[in-house]
# Entry
Amino acid sequence: MNKLTAKIFVIAALALLLQTAQAFDFGQELRNAARELQKPGGSANLGGYSEEEEVAIGRQIAGNLLGAAPLVQDKKLQKYVNNVGRWVAIQSERPDLVWHFGVIDSSDINAFAAPGGYIFVTRGLYKLLNDEAELAGVLAHEIGHVISKHHLKILQQGKMLDLGSKLLGKQVGDDKIGRLIGSGAEIVSRSLDKGAEFEADRIGVVLAARAGYDAYGLPGVLQEIGHTAADDSSVALLFKTHPHPDDRLAKLGEAMDSRFDGLNGQTAAKRLYKIK
Amino acid sequence: MKFYLLFTLFIAGAAQAAESGTTVKTDSVRSAPFSDAKIITTLPAATRVEILKKDGGWYQIKSPQGSGWIRMLSLRRGDVKAATGPISGLASLASGRAGTGKIVATTGIRGLNEEELKAAHYDEKQIALLESSTSSRVEAQKYAAKARLKARQIDYLAEPGASK
# Structure
């Protein structure tokens, strides 16, 4: 191609681009995208990774976390949280994702979510629970993070950009995606922006209520954690990475208002599995 | 004598069980845990109360102004120790962040800090163990039915203050 034809080509391309830009209502597209993002889980459509890739990433992170704190050795307990957790997850936009729940052996009070449906609560948090509705509320908050892809988005913005270029460079299977993440599980405790935590709280109370539970399970747990001394080391990481429970309760109070009045749910207190 | 001792123990136990809370906004105290139950009194923000029990989104409370049920989210559980000094009510909630609250027993099992998370190495055996407890959709539905849990349609909550 000589210089002149190249020039003509560029001009033609630009003209074409301008035309398309005009035909394309950019404002409308932006509004659509914003609306999509506002829907809980709606951002899934903008996530950029296939479900297989997301699960491979989450599996690696979950395996790393379990390397730091293994599962509590109580098969009945683990089965119990999976039964409760999956039932709550069925009420979300991703009922068919293969969800995994586990109680990990740590005296810390915390709960974690990794992409692809991997959810953990610590033994310390589990011991605070008074009934099954509270467990459902805690798991539902974490399910909220997964369906909103909060952690996945962080991975995409940071470390994962690197992974993206690696993936472009050579074709890698889903099984290798996880391995590219490498070691470390700090992503699960990474501070999300406050808005993401409040969003997960709002999703949490709704999913638990949809599952037939008392909607106030999660707020009940936040009340319990809220009056745990801030200098207690068991809540150090949780308090560092989350807004204070009092602030979360205030936001939930505004959002819930009287919406759940008369909507009785079960606490299923008798069924709460007693941890040894 | 024996009875007296038992009685003292009972009193001590009761005193320990009583939990306190502080209102974070003005709200009504009602005769029952329902929004249309009779109003007994209205408590201003920063009123200290005694929490007796919880029922759904409500706490049963006792206060000098009157006893009854108040919305859970109008209250924050918090220790009321006279020893906390002149700061009271909301002020102590805001500054002390309920810092005098109960200390969760630390049983010697190690916690989980950021350094440990950063240094964590993948454990395939643990992942296999995790996956061995996974519940299918049908399994979970059956387990829910055992407790008579029924799915309901409820819309997601809007972000407070966000325009609709």
Summary: Confidence is low (pLDDT under 50) at residues 8-16, 80-109 of chain B. The two ends of chain B are 68 Å apart (CA to CA). The longest strand of chain B covers residues 48-55.
